[in-house]
Amino acid sequence: DILFWSTQAKPVEETQAMREQVLSGFSESVDYQASDTGPWLTRIQAELEAGQGTIGLLGGLHGDFTTLADNLVDLSDVDLGGVSVNDTFQQLGRLGTDEQKYLPWMQATYIMAANRKALDYLPEGADINALTYDELIAWMKTLAEETGGPKFGFPAGPKGLKHRFFQGYLYPSYTDSMVTKFRSAEAEEAWNKFKELWAYTNPASTSFAFMQEQLLTEEVWVAFDHTARLAEAFNQRPDDFVAFPAPAGPTGRGFMPVVAGVAVPETAPDMEKAKALAAYMLKPETQIATLRATNFFPVVDVELPDDMPAAVRISGAAIAAMSGAEDANPGLLPMGLGDLGGKFNQVYNDTFERIVLAGQDVRAVLDDQAEALRAIMEEAGAPCWAPDEPSEGACPVE
Amino acid sequence: MEQRSLPYLLLLPATLFLCVFFIYPFLLVAWQAVSQDGSFTLEHFRTMADHWKFSTAFWNTILLAMAVVPLQLALALLMATLVTRMGAGRDVILYIWTIPLGISDLAAGIIWLAIFEQTGFLNSILSSLGLIDQPTTWLGYQDKATIFIAVVLAELWRATAIVLVILVAGMGLIPKEYYEAAEVFGAGPWKRFVRITLPLLRPSIQTALILRTILAFEVFAVVAALGGTNLPVLMGETYVWQFDLQDRHVAAAYALVILAISIAFTLVFLRTLRVPKEARI
Amino acid sequence: MAEISIRNVAKRFGDFTALHSIDLTVEDQEFMVLLGASGCGKTTLLRIIAGLETPSQGEVWIGGRRVDHLPPRQRGIAMVFQNYAIFPHLTVFENIAFGLRMQKLPQAEIDRRVTRTAELMHIGQLLKRYSGQLSGGQRQRVAVARALAMEPDVILMDEPLSNLDALLRLEMRAELKGVLAESKTTTIYVTHDQVEAMSLADRIAVMNQGRIVQAAEPIEVYRNPAARFVGSFIGNPPMNFLPARKADNGSWQVAGVRFDGPQAEREEIAFAIRPEDLHPAEDGLPAKVRVVEPLGPHVLATCEVEGHLFRAVLDSDIRLRRGDTVKLAPMPQRIRWFDPESEESLQPHR
Amino acid sequence: MAEISIRNVAKRFGDFTALHSIDLTVEDQEFMVLLGASGCGKTTLLRIIAGLETPSQGEVWIGGRRVDHLPPRQRGIAMVFQNYAIFPHLTVFENIAFGLRMQKLPQAEIDRRVTRTAELMHIGQLLKRYSGQLSGGQRQRVAVARALAMEPDVILMDEPLSNLDALLRLEMRAELKGVLAESKTTTIYVTHDQVEAMSLADRIAVMNQGRIVQAAEPIEVYRNPAARFVGSFIGNPPMNFLPARKADNGSWQVAGVRFDGPQAEREEIAFAIRPEDLHPAEDGLPAKVRVVEPLGPHVLATCEVEGHLFRAVLDSDIRLRRGDTVKLAPMPQRIRWFDPESEESLQPHR
Amino acid sequence: MTTATATAAATAADIRRPARLLFAATIVLLCAWVLAPIYLLTVNALSSPDQVNAFPKSFVPGFEMGSITFFLQFGGVLRALFNSILVAGITMVLAIGLGAPAGYALSRFEFRGKGTFRIMVLMTRAFPLPLLALPLAVMFIRTGLDDTAIGLAIVHTTLALPFAVLITFSLFSGIPVELEEAAWTLGCTRLQAFYKVVLPLVLPGIAASAVFAFVISWNEVFAAAVLTIENRTLTAFLLQNLDVSPLHLKFAGGAVLVVPALIFIFAVRKYLFAMWGIANR
Ligand SMILES: Nc1ncnc2c1ncn2[C@@H]1O[C@H](COP(=O)(O)OP(=O)(O)OP(=O)(O)O)[C@@H](O)[C@H]1O
Ligand SMILES: Nc1ncnc2c1ncn2[C@@H]1O[C@H](COP(=O)(O)OP(=O)(O)OP(=O)(O)O)[C@@H](O)[C@H]1O
Ligand SMILES: [Mg+2]
Ligand SMILES: [Mg+2]
């Protein structure tokens, strides 16, 4: 048995699918265990500290690995059997070192989803595949007014991934930056826009984590979320929901891919098998099976078959439209932050909570949080990443 | 005489157990709260206290405990009294009332969220009764008060059974002759409750209060389910620092704060509800 | 006005009948003593009057009100429990004050009453103690004080002095009688001490196996037992019984001696005499001495008359030894006769 | 061999001294009765012997072994508790069998012993009941049966018959005495019933306020009290005391009457006589009658002699009324004298 | 007046008609309060995803077993169930075995260090477990306790022990010492007196704290997730990610989680209230 210890595919159905559809094809039997970050991290830390362990392969998001970098085995020697892996992701997998700390495993991004009923209220002349934030706000305003309540949904709950929205969508769309222009005037405008949007956002959003649920119950009609967290809505009622790209701002249509990877801890009981399993995860067939199971897209070049689940078809099209848009402004996951990744995210979350939820003064909050951000960047010494211009030394917060 | 050493002997297994499996790891964690790279510092406490959420989380936790625990005690006392006055069917009722005992906070959070959600049962009832035509939002970020009430209700539902069983077990040990004497000397049901049940139940009440208060300071799952990020509590913040922010030092500092207020309240209960040795049964 | 009237009351515990149809009236201000063997139902009867037990049948009236459906606190009673039931969480003072506080009396009045009854019961110096710090007799006195302090219309006492030494008891007894008479309280008092019963009671109700056998003045109960049980139960030592065979002229033959007796259509009835109503005399009943016990001024001689147990209380001057045979003559006016079947008295002398 | 020897034992509860330096030896197979006022420390002493209370000082020896440091079960004792301590979760049978099961006796033997002691205590028909279903007296008998069934070397009984009616008590008393004598058990028995004490005891130990005042045979304690307390405590009613003023020729003047008395370097001593040792006579003490109470064959006359309380037990034939003055003569050989300060006996007659 | 027991009869006079009605109504209301959320959980567990997501929600189940079957079909469910019961069982035994003697000592003796011990016990409950999990896991991995039922039970015992100690403490305080003393004089050692006299009397309370221990262990997720790999408990195996699963599975999972615990409480119910028939003293 190889123990595959993962923070991904946690919902029970996905876990089950991973076991039955993805990993059953491997030559060895694999024990796939998905858990919350808390137990996941605690367990692997304990094994590393104890110097022995049972975990063979780790699966996690880019951010999950940052703290563990020192104890992950270099995977550059893994024989991938000729599959070509997305370069950017492979680069991210080095975690700022010379070694391949993790292999990219699957990717996803955030898109918008809407109930078809909502389309009737689209503002005059707006193209759903090329929305701007202003149009989105106008749309939501009409919806709220016409249907008697806010209909926009945003995953701002404790398990929601809201920080990625601010980092990869809101900031790039308004400031063409994630870090550098954190407290710029443009940023202030971005937050004000977001506040405007928030007025038409379902107030219960602060406990939402997976927008598919609220879409299905029709608590919200339009939502922003991770593709994997919208999948259930598309799969259950493919005819009722549409997917479309995130909106654009003055500096383009900011968006951000999310990447999950697999890594081998130095305490893995059987290094060879672990590496073999890592390689197996990158096989095109496995990648397609994974897509079916988890709605995370492949990180290797493959031809998708036609019989993919509805969610894949629908969100795949939206992703294509988003990345292929003229004003596309892709950003990258934070890099080189080490174990400060969590605090980095917290800066954005705090800013959101203070400005939007607590209603504090935008300027003051930005100034305040910029200090925190700067401290983090300096402590980590991480250079800037896209869409910020590469920097010498720590990425500056202007 | 064996009298002297016996209590220590009786405590020995539990003590040894706790030393190995609690005190030792606890000391390791506690050390993290007050050290940085091996040297003593209060920096982490400062970081914690300076964080803008700290005082909100702190007061939310205290307020929740202050609201939930007394209500639970009152409800459990009511239930226990009803149970003791019941004839046939007592077992069944008691079983029903202790059902929530078996329900984890995780499950309780799910159930209560399903009730208070916008498309949840509460709105379903209200709308089928025609009281509302649009689902009302109960748990929105502006509805701090409703969230608070919802959390209190859920906690009340989930964790009153613990108090109930402690009290029922305690009441079972009060000799009925005392009630009879009180009755003859003019005490009505209420007076009997206040003058006989409550004082004689003091050890049980003390136990229930201490345990419940400590647990109340650790509320998390239900609050997170119902309140999301709107109702930060200490335990939630501890999680955030430990796992999201990956700062074990500050997380440990939070944990010590929880520990400190728990012990403070415990001491208060131990003091105020102490039964003098000579006044025991 | 607190007359107690018990009408046709019965109490069953499952199969077991603790009280069979009891009828008893206790006059206002009367001091009624309940006497009876252990387990005969005295406590049960008190508890029914107090309202702590629901009768299986019958009615209880107090002061002209039917009370069976009233809770104890509305019956205007106070009670001393056989096992005291002193509240362990309260001091002696608060125990005694308990009922008074229920009546919301002013503190000064409470202090006054508690102090007074505590003094009466000689526990004035124990007021700050808890029941765990008291001796058995002290607890019992607290229980009595608690009831007295209530100054109720009716007081029910279940063996209130059983754990006290003779001296204290004597004293308490006198005090109780005085206090209760003064406060015009109707009292039902359970005791197994006959001296106590005799000296306290206005009337004595003798119970046997869940029935009231006789309720009359003490001297009447002592001298003219209504049933054989009463004679055999009351008196320490109790009455002696011997079989009497019919002789001629309406006289009866007892252990070879002839006595005048009642007219009865029986071949055999029971002859009864109290041990202290015997004296050695030539024409007495022949008794074989088995045991001689000194009782201070007297001796108790346990003898055998024609194979029947026969006791005599004699002056200690009389020298007796085991194995002796003495002739014991009964005082004629003290001889009683009982029907052997109904066990009821055959009263020729009245 | 189970001699009990208590040496210099004291017990303090906080400030309060319940026992002051007690010395007492109970011979093997002796039946020792403890008598004393309520709260004088009887229960405390028993508990110390049983090992339930640690003495504040002193030693306890049983059967030649020092036992103060042994737990109760190793002392070879059984005890009857003043308030029974019947296990509520066990039936009467199991309560009685409890100690036997601890000794791992075979079931047949347990059955035998339980049945036997239960019969002895007249609770044979209650064996299946729980304590909540018993009357006070029945519980008490279960407690006694439980101790007896153990057949221990030493048995400690704390008022074991206090809740029984006179008749049953008389019977139980006889049974107890028989059984304990037969099984050669050393017994310490607390009672407040003096008749019981007199009839059961080999020796009586009289306690007063945490001290043993006299330990002697019953008749000795009754006739020759070692201290004024003993005389005033024992006897029902107790001894009468009058002040005696020194007259000439070693005689003493009491209420205007002269008596021969002890030599004493005192101006005033105490004259004492038991109420039953008085008879009306011309040369008697002038007594003013206050209350007359019938006591069956006798009357108890409570009088006043020179302002002092004075009781007499007289034949009921003597006609007395409140307010009469009678002359009461003491039996000369029964007069006792006490030192007014030490309160100890001044014994001229021995 | 036909009520059976003496107590009921004694108080019967107290409760006259309006009061009696109120009494019954309160009981019914409280039962409804406890049962309603459970009912909703069941309704949803037995409904299809569509029904679960509908609004207004239906209050009768659709009797679709799909969601429940989904869980029951998981490979290794039975094994996980067995592990859960095993771990909870060991926890129960350990918690009572270590806790009851300590509770007894606290209730019967006055000794130095009593207060300290009480606080130490409470600390275990007042300190957030997730922080302790790391050092404990390291310790367990090193000593081979990792991934064993006993290892996990040990952690759960630290959670359950405070309950066991405090509840038994309050129960023992309600038993008259005299009964024990009587047992000593009848030849019992302290231990024998304890289990022959005290234990039967406090059995309901002991059962209650055993139930707590069981339920605490049953519902505990964090440590179970960290400390068991091959020997997963049911919670860790199926349900630790319940809160991020689709709604219909949340409910079904909740039900799967709750039902065994309820069965357990039901099974021990008779011990919980076994001694009620017997009057005290
Ligand atoms: N735990 C205690 N704390 C303080 N005083 C106590 C305690 N126990 C007993 N006493 C006191 O010690 C004295 C002796 O008590 P003990 O129980 O031995 O009396 P006793 O002779 O058995 O009386 P009784 O005949 O009334 O049962 C009493 O005055 C009592 O109040
Ligand atoms: N709850 C009960 N269940 C069954 N029988 C009972 C119950 N309570 C009392 N009894 C029985 O009823 C009878 C009367 O009991 P009660 O307590 O009235 O006696 P008592 O006259 O007070 O005796 P004592 O002088 O011994 O206290 C007894 O034989 C007793 O065993
Ligand atoms: Mg009785
Ligand atoms: Mg005593």
Automatic annotation (TrEMBL), chain B:
The chain crosses the membrane at residues 7-31, 57-80, 92-115, 145-169, 209-231, 251-270. Gene3D superfamilies: MetI-like. It is found in: Cell membrane. Keywords: Membrane, Transmembrane, Transmembrane helix, Transport. Residues 58-269 form the ABC transmembrane type-1 domain. Belongs to the binding-protein-dependent transport system permease family. This is Carbohydrate ABC transporter permease. It comes from Chelativorans intermedius. The lineage of its organism: Bacteria, Pseudomonadati, Pseudomonadota, Alphaproteobacteria, Hyphomicrobiales.
From TrEMBL, chains C, D:
Residues 4-234 form the ABC transporter domain. It comes from the Bacteria. InterPro entries: AAA+_ATPase, ABC_transporter-like_ATP-bd, ABC_transporter-like_CS, ABC_transpr_MalK-like, ABC_transpr_MalK/UgpC-like, Mo/tungstate-bd_C_term_dom, NA-bd_OB-fold, P-loop_NTPase. Keywords: ATP-binding, Nucleotide-binding, Transport. GO terms for molecular function: ATP binding. It holds the Pfam family ABC_tran. Belongs to the ABC transporter superfamily. This is ABC transporter ATP-binding protein. It comes from Chelativorans intermedius.
From TrEMBL, chain E:
This is Carbohydrate ABC transporter permease. Belongs to the binding-protein-dependent transport system permease family. CDD domains: TM_PBP2. It is a multi-pass membrane protein. It comes from Chelativorans intermedius. Pfam families: BPD_transp_1. Residues 81-268 form the ABC transmembrane type-1 domain. Its main location: membrane. The chain crosses the membrane at residues 21-41, 80-107, 119-141, 153-172, 193-218, 247-268. It is found in: Cell membrane. Keywords: Cell membrane, Membrane, Transmembrane, Transmembrane helix, Transport.
